[in-house]
């Protein structure tokens, strides 16, 4: 190894820090010592006012009371009797033509697995939301334009992008959740939340695909898909009957009523696929391939729809459970546990055991994560690492128009120390240089002027922060392809390490910020070292003098304040060996196309 490379690598966390892997999370030092900031009860914008969502509770209670009063009154009228006679809620035509009557064993198991997986998915989803606690309907994530938020507005005096020292970063904006609610609760724990979310997403999708195959193979689909328009009057009739507290006959063993069919159909055939699609639309690599960074399918709309699907799922699970309890608990439990139309008390025992398991796992998930952070990272890599690796092969070629440029691009990250930055910036970056070394034929050092003198490339592309915000900007700089032409990487150079002159967190403890990128990505025309943003020299907040763009990846991999690049065969010997600062310290994955 050359002396240059050795010097570079020594700037990262010393290998001794690897001894701490496996230690529990130290909340005091976590994420560079971010203080605790609780998420607030969500607020929703109504006109110009922000309304606390807890208002939903009294409104729902009053709504339910009014509904009961109205439905009971309606049932006093003869025409309502006639209507209910004609549309009792379901009809014998709803009896499916199943080869497997009632609730077959596979369906009962899938039902349990579904609940189990969704518990992890939903809690981890809340944690991801808490990391950028705002939802928007525009592609720019512009401050103050959100429709929902978990904390107050960002301080007005911390929005001046020219003043990096006071700027409010996305990390400053992150919040924490109670550990029993979020997974794992603590602030900026999105790395863990994503491992949980994606790992269980995969299991949930497999479970779902199997479910679709089996319901169509057995005829079970017929009880879930409305095949006649009379499902609507039947649903209305069911609603009036439930509302008047004089329930319709429970025929769930063989067929569902109109209201059930509509609810199940929406959940299975609309909400579930929508969850998957809107999840994928939040991936930088997909947006950069299909150009969905702007327009109706943009990431912020996808986040909002993803969130609304979660609301529907939580509402469905709550109402579904209440209905199981109040429409004949023992009979219903016999259906779903024993697959039998009887009234055995064993069904209640099985239900209690299943619920105890859910509660146990619910209680253990966050403490386990904080105690064994590296295990969660390893489990996540094992579950979804390869799939994420495959997604990295997309061609991230999408470009946007000048008018799509976001008025405000959120800044993020830990700034370089002020004196270090000022010293370099003085005299037009005279004291700064870009060192390029490692497995290359021509190790080189470029001055700022040398970089400017290389052919310039411009692109209008979208930035996706792991935390949830995104925005479009015009970047000007030099293609990595040009750099490759100069330094001539050797055939065994598989990874390219970008080193920052900024520490990864406050102070030197964790070493300098760095991240590793696949050699293959370096040839893409949109992989550039940018020194301009929106036609102006890069601001300090956005990484002056030089920062990376690789449109296949999430924002944290776009190293800012770069001053060295190294070509390596593998990154295992660097830092703590995970491929980058956030990978080492916040347990992220190194493949981040989603
Ligand atoms: N050196 C360094 N580069 C960094 C970071 C950092 O903390 N240090 N943060 C990353 C993160 S998390 C994001 S989202 C982007 C933000 O880029 P922007 O501030 O230009 O929007 O920079 C990335 N590059
Ligand atoms: Mo980020």
Structure characterization notes:
The protein has 18 helices and 14 strands. The longest helix is centred in the middle third of the chain and has 29 residues, at 190-218. The chain is α+β, with helices and mostly antiparallel strands. α7 (190-218) crosses α14 (373-391), α8 crosses α9 and α12 crosses α13. Among the domains are: 3-25 and 399-585, Sulfite Oxidase, Chain A, domain 2 (Alpha-Beta Complex), CATH 3.90.420; 34-98 and 220-287 and 298-322, no CATH class. It is elongated, with a radius of gyration of 28 Å. The protein has helices spanning 3-10, 30-33, 56-74, 78-86, 105-131, 170-173, 190-218, 231-243, 258-280, 284-290, 299-326, 329-338, 346-371, 373-391, 418-429, 448-453, 480-487, 581-585, and strands at 43-46, 49-52, 134-135, 148-149, 433-438, 444-447, 457-464, 470-479, 495-503, 512-518, 528-533, 536-537, 547-549, 562-568. A 5-stranded mixed beta sheet has the order 6-5-14-9-10. Strands 7, 8, 11, 12 and 13 form a 5-stranded antiparallel beta sheet that branches. The chain has a 4-stranded antiparallel beta sheet with strand order 2-1-4-3. The protein binds ligand MTE and molybdenum atom. Molybdenum atom (MO) binds at residues 412, 465-467, 555-556. Residues 412, 465-467, 555-556 line the site of molybdenum atom.
């Amino acid at each position: 190894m050359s002396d240059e490379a050795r010097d570079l690598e020594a700037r990262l966390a010393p290998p001794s820090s690897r001894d701490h892997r496996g230690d529990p999370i130290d909340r005091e030092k976590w994420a560079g010592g971010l203080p605790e900031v609780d998420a607030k009860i969500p607020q929703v914008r109504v006109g110009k006012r922000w309304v606390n969502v807890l208002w939903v509770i009294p409104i729902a209670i009053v709504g339910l009371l009014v509904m009961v009063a109205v439905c009971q009154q309606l049932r006093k009228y003869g025409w309502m009797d006639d209507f209910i006679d004609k549309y009792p809620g379901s009809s014998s035509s709803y009896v499916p033509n199943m080869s497997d009557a009632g609730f077959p064993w596979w369906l009962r198991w899938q039902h349990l697995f579904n609940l189990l997986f969704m518990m992890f998915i939903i809690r981890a989803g809340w944690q991801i939301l808490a990391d950028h606690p705002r939802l928007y309907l525009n592609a720019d994530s512009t401050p103050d334009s959100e429709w929902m938020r978990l904390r107050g507005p960002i301080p007005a005096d911390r929005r001046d992008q020219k003043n990096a020292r006071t700027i409010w970063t996305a990390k400053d904006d992150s919040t924490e959740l109670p550990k029993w609610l979020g997974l794992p609760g603590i602030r900026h724990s999105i790395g863990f939340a994503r491992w949980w979310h994606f790992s269980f997403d995969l299991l949930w999708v497999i479970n779902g695909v199997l479910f679709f195959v089996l319901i169509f193979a057995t005829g079970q689909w017929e009880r879930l898909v409305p095949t006649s328009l009379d499902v609507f009057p039947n649903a209305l009739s069911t609603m009036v009957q439930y509302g008047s507290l004089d329930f319709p006959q429970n025929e769930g063993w063989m067929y569902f009523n109109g209201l059930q069919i509509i609810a199940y159909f929406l959940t299975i055939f609309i909400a579930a696929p929508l969850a998957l699609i809107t999840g994928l639309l939040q991936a930088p690599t997909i947006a950069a391939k299909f150009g969905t960074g702007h327009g109706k399918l943009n990431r912020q709309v996808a986040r909002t729809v993803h969130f609304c699907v979660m609301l529907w799922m939580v509402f469905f699970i709550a109402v579904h459970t209440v209905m199981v309890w109040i429409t004949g608990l023992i009979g219903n439990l016999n259906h779903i546990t024993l697959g039998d139309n009887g009234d055995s008390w064993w069904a209640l025992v099985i239900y209690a055991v299943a619920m105890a398991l859910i509660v146990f796992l619910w209680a253990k998930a966050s403490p386990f994560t904080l105690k064994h952070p590296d295990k969660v990272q390893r489990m996540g890599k094992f579950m979804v690492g390869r799939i994420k690796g495959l997604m990295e092969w997309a061609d991230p070629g999408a470009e946007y128009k000048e008018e799509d440029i976001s008025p405000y691009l959120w800044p993020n990250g830990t700034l370089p120390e002020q004196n270090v930055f000022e010293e370099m910036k003085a005299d037009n970056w005279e004291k700064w240089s870009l060192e390029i070394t490692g497995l290359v034929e021509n190790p080189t050092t470029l001055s700022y002027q040398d970089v400017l003198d290389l052919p310039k490339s411009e692109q209008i592309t979208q930035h996706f922060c792991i935390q949830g915000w995104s925005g479009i900007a015009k970047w000007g700089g030099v293609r990595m392809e040009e750099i490759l032409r100069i330094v001539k990487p050797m055939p065994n150079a598989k990874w390219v390490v970008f080193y920052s002159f900024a520490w990864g967190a406050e102070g030197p403890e964790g070493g300098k910020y760095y991240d590793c990128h696949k050699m293959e990505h370096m040839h893409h025309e949109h992989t550039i070292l940018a020194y301009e943003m929106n036609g102006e020299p890069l601001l300090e907040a956005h990484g002056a003098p030089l920062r990376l763009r690789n449109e296949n990846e999430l924002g944290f991999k776009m190293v800012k304040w770069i001053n060295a690049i190294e070509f390596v065969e593998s990154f295992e010997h660097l830092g703590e060996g995970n491929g980058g600062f956030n990978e080492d310290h916040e347990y992220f994955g190194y493949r981040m196309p989603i």
